[in-house]
Amino acid sequence: MYELAFLPAGDASRSGDAIVLRFDRPDTGGRVHVVVDAGYAGDGARLVVPQLRAWGAERIDLAILTHPDPDHVGGMAEVLEALPVAELWAHRPAAHGDRRSRASGRVERLVTVAKRRGVPVLEPWAGREALGALRVLGPDRAYYDGLIARGAPPVDRGPLVGAARWLWERLTLLAPGEVRFGDEEGVSHWNNGSTVLRLRLPGLRAVLTADAGVPALERAWDGAPFDVVQIPHHGSKRNATSAVLDRVLGVVGQPPIRTAVVSVAPRSPKHPSPRVLRAWARRGCVVRRTSGEAVVVRGE
Question: Pairing mode, if any, of strands 18-24 and 2-6?
Fold first, then answer.
């Protein structure tokens, strides 16, 4: 038995990520509950905790913070305060040379809550496994340390550049095939440091990508078969290329037998990219959006 609930974190215009899992361990048969991110402040109490209580959860076997952006970390302390948590996985930028950024501060405040609640905190490096079904695909420590050392990349977000990209995005949808696209600058080092996860159960192979960009996905995801996948970063065009999608999804023209979930606000001004969603769909994925409502994938 398994259930994956992609919750509608954020509000009408701000997209967030909050995913709650429950499944029967393939090794012991015991039922477990896992939280992967908890949206913005308030989303933990509004969405995550009620979902867990609806499932009858009396504790959380594992909580995972994929990276310290506000739309992922904001509600996690509320989750730790509401239910006993056996373990928290989170990268700590302060332990890797970044003690001053706001992102680092968010993580350390969460760690303070965890310690007060008696929750052990571990960093989820590639290869770490848990609960007989979860495995961290990335990042590895060397890659993460390099991201922290380089810091944030320069991004040109001027209004003229944004308008030109918006127009080009729409024009590409008029083409009969796919206008192949390449890596765009602007994926933050925090996003590329996202924890990428694989969940393997009888009848289910799932990959959770958080906000990982192209270089992070290329390092982490080996293109192994999957049934369910999270589209990175709310469907941003900065987090995909035609080439990497060819590698991890396969070529264009496959039958739609897999599910791709994108967490996106109903009226988000910039997410998801229609071109990116079409690229996933053309490679055999049925795309489902949260768009104000939970997307639940379940099986026996």
Answer: antiparallel
- Domain total of the chain: 1
Listed in sequence order, the DSSP H helices in 136-241 are 141-150, 159-172, 189-192, 214-220
| Mutual angle of helices 242-249 and 274-281, in 10-degree steps | 30
In whole angstroms, what is the distance from residue 218 CA to residue 248 CA?
Answer: 9
The average pLDDT across 156-164 equals 48
pLDDT grade for 72, boundaries at 50, 70 and 90? very high
Question: Which residues have a Cβ under 8 Å from the Cβ of 221 and sit 6 or more positions away?
Answer: 137, 138, 196, 207, 209, 248
Which CATH number does the domain housing residue 237 bear?
3.60.15.10
pTM exceeding 0.85:
yes
Average pLDDT, the chain: 90
What are the beta bridge partners of residue 286? 259
Where does the chain show beta strands of DSSP type E?
Answer: 2-6, 18-24, 31-38, 62-64, 88-89, 121-122, 129-130, 134-138, 196-201, 204-208, 228-230, 258-262, 285-289, 295-299
List pLDDT tens digits, range 221-234.
988 899 999 999 99
Domain of residue 117 covers 2-299
